Structure formats: structure tokens, C-alpha cells
């Protein structure tokens, strides 16, 4: 008996998955350009970077220091009752 190959009939790819594939294509093109395997105009590079900034999070270093002796953070919860 031969193994099944491919997708089952009626398969529909989710929109989220389609977007991930499109984003990976943009990133792949930019990487190929950096490696010298693909020529791109400066406009194409700028557009690719702008699109990636919309879908990939910025990798920012965030440090939270509190006012405690060892940098502890004090969290205060307040309940407001409006009448």
C-alpha cells in the first residue's frame, strides 16, 4: 500500500499561514541580497525592510529597575469604586 502524499482534498490554508509564507519570502530575498546572490534596487530593499518592521517585533532590550534595595519593584493595586 502506497503512502498518502500531499494535502487531503478540501484543505484550506489559514490566512495566518499564508502571511507567514509571504513574510518569509521577503526575508529570504533580503538575505540573498546581503549574500550577493540576488540583485535588488535600493527601493526594493527599503520596501522589504519596511514590510518586515510591520510583521517582526523589534528586538529591544528592556530593563525594569525598582526603587528597592536590590532593585525590587513594588506593585500596588488600587480599586476605584464610582457611584
Number of helices: 2
Cα-to-Cα separation, first versus last residue: 73 Å
Counting helices, strands and paired strands, the structural category is mainly alpha
Order of helices and strands: HH
Low-confidence stretches: none
Number of DSSP-assigned strands: 0
Helix content: 40-55%
Strand content: under 5%
- For the report, how would you describe the main beta sheet? none
Mean pLDDT: 81
Rounded to the nearest angstrom, the radius of gyration is: 24 Å
Number of domains: 1
> What is the general shape?
extended
Observed structural traits:
83 residues, mainly alpha
Strand-helix topology:
Layout: H1 15-34, H2 42-55
Helix pairs in contact: 1-2
Q: Would you kindly provide a brief summary of this structure?
A:
By secondary structure, this protein is an all-alpha fold. It has two helices and no strands.
Describe this protein's structure.
The structure is a single chain. The protein is 41% helix and 0% strand. It has helices at 15-34, 42-55. The protein is mainly alpha-helical and 83 residues long. Helix 1 crosses helix 2. It has one domain (14-83). The model has no long low-confidence stretch (mean pLDDT 81).
Amino acid at each position: 500500500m502506497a503512502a498518502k502524499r500531499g494535502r487531503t482534498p478540501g484543505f484550506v490554508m489559514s490566512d495566518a499561514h499564508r502571511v507567514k509564507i509571504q513574510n518569509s519570502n521577503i526575508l529570504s530575498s533580503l538575505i540573498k541580497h546581503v549574500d550577493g546572490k540576488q540583485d535588488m534596487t535600493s527601493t526594493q530593499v527599503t520596501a522589504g525592510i519596511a514590510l518586515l518592521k510591520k510583521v517582526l517585533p523589534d528586538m529591544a532590550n528592556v530593563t525594569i529597575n525598582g526603587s528597592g534595595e536590590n532593585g525590587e519593584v513594588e506593585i500596588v493595586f488600587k480599586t476605584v469604586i464610582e457611584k
